[in-house]
């Protein structure tokens, strides 16, 4: 969409307000999908929810590729938004629930790694398709996602269901077979099954393949009540932490900068559309490479340290971007050095987000909720994520027109500095079982003694990994 917007604005002669609406409407429509995706996955299963999301996304992409008018584009973008809302919930939940604790960080980050490689392919295809005729190029850009959507539907028909969802349905025998496939040893599979049965309210000594499970556990009913009305201190802290990481992921300005990056580059003097799209390719490479690196660091260094490094780097690079844009906006002459520095700072900014704030948010929030609350708890968190994203995307142009581009970058710098203090207070979850999270978040934890608490959790987590 970042590349397509350049050509849509030219062909359809739409205003900046309409551009913002077209960009932001995806997240508006993702909101109701996020709210029902968790309950849907509790009802029909994780695997079929992924298939549903793919089909919806495929239909929306086809409609946008057809795109004879602005109204049809909006409608297609809304359908894609519904698919995105489902996918944002179910992909990390499915990944977390089939993963072993020792590799969960890596495996749960793969949806985000894949997403960023998809963005890179989007930037590259935009650069190539931008050379086609005006009325064909952007339509091809928006129709191409139908191909991976169709491939995903076919692949998911062959993949296993989440063992945790199967246990919630009382299908213990099927869950055991899945765990034997996705665990390192038979002993690990049996240990994980015992922990999951306890979390689902089933006697761990029960040897039956099919057991009766309370209806509210099977369908996820009552989860929202427990999250917001009958909340225990550990669950309250888990919910606050999950929502917090999602809010701060968006308010650093990453989605606005990614989507409107051609406008940022235009401000520095790049006017040719082909060069603008080429500059976004470099941004996509930076994001994809560092997200991939992050996947290997998550289980080595932990979630919290990557968030702190990432937020610190974002503060520095956004400050640099603010200085460069201030020079551009207050200078009457074209300064070529600011162009180079702006591009470098944006690439480094994207790299710092990609190594921590981007992927760790999804890993952390998908693993900290208890089994009975996981899908719907993540649904609440991602709903807040999408609301924040809508605000950032739909106000990005208006804000920089009001307080200048440099002023908007300095604003995001201050917000990310607050995020650093928030990340400092989070407990580490590296190497811990999903069934241990309530215990971890139930411990007293003060910002002043977070280093000692973190070290204690690291030692326990390493012992669990060795086991």
From TrEMBL:
UniProt keywords, alphabetically: Membrane, Sugar transport, Symport, Transmembrane, Transmembrane helix, Transport
Membrane topology value: Multi-pass membrane protein
Source organism, top-level taxon: Eukaryota
Membrane-traversing stretches: 17-36, 48-66, 72-94, 106-124, 136-160, 238-261, 276-298, 305-328, 340-365, 377-397, 403-424
Positions of the Major facilitator superfamily (MFS) profile domain: 1-431
Main localisation: membrane
Chloroplast is among the record's keywords: no
UniProt-listed Gene3D superfamilies: MFS general substrate transporter like domains
Protein's cellular compartments: Membrane
GO molecular function: symporter activity
Recorded family membership: Belongs to the major facilitator superfamily. Sugar transporter (TC 2.A.1.1) family.
Protein name listed in UniProt: Major facilitator superfamily (MFS) profile domain-containing protein
Organism: Flemingia macrophylla
Lineage start: Eukaryota, Viridiplantae, Streptophyta, Embryophyta, Tracheophyta
């Amino acid at each position: 969409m970042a590349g397509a917007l350049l050509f849509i604005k030219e062909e359809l002669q739409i205003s900046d307000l309409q551009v913002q609406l077209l960009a932001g409407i995806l997240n508006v429509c993702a909101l109701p999908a996020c709210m029902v995706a968790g309950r849907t996955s509790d009802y029909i299963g994780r695997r079929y929810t992924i298939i549903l999301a793919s089909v919806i996304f495929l239909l929306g992409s086809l409609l946008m590729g057809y795109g004879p008018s602005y109204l049809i584009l909006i409608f297609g973008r809304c359908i894609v938004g519904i698919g995105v809302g489902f996918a944002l919930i179910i992909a990390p939940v499915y990944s977390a629930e089939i993963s072993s604790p020792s590799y969960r960080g890596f495996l749960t980050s793969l949806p985000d790694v894949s997403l960023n490689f998809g963005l890179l392919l989007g930037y590259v295809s935009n650069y190539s398709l931008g050379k086609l005729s005006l009325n064909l190029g952007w339509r091809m850009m928006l129709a191409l996602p139908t191909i991976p959507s169709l491939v995903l539907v076919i692949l998911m028909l062959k993949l296993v269901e989440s063992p945790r969802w199967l246990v919630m349905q009382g299908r213990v025998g099927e869950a055991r077979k899945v765990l034997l496939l996705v665990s390192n040893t038979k002993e690990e599979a049996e240990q994980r099954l015992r922990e999951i049965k306890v979390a689902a309210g089933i006697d761990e000594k029960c040897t039956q393949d099919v057991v009766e499970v309370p209806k509210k556990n099977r369908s996820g009913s009552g989860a929202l009540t427990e999250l917001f009305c009958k909340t225990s201190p550990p669950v309250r802290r888990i919910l606050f932490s999950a929502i917090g990481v999602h809010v701060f992921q968006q308010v650093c300005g990453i989605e606005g900068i990614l989507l409107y990056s051609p406008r940022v580059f235009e401000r520095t003097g790049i006017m040719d559309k082909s060069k603008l799209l080429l500059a976004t390719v470099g941004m996509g490479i930076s994001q994809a490479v560092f997200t991939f690196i992050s996947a290997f660091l998550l289980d080595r260094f932990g979630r919290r340290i990557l968030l702190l490094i990432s937020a610190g780097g974002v503060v520095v690079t956004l400050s640099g971007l603010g200085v460069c844009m201030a020079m551009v906006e207050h200078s009457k002459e074209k300064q070529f050095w600011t162009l180079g520095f702006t591009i470098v700072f944006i690439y480094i900014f994207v790299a710092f987000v990609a190594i921590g704030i981007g992927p760790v948010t999804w890993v952390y929030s998908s693993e900290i909720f208890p089994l009975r609350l996981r899908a719907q708890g993540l649904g609440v968190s991602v709903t807040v994520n999408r609301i924040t994203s809508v605000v950032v995307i739909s106000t990005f142009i208006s804000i920089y027109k009001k307080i200048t581009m440099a002023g908007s970058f300095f604003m995001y710098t201050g917000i990310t500095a607050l995020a650093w203090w928030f990340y400092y207070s989070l407990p580490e979850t590296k190497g811990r079982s999903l069934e241990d999270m309530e215990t971890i978040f139930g411990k007293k934890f003060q910002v002043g003694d977070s280093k000692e608490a973190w070290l204690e959790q690291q030692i326990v987590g390493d012992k669990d990994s060795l086991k």
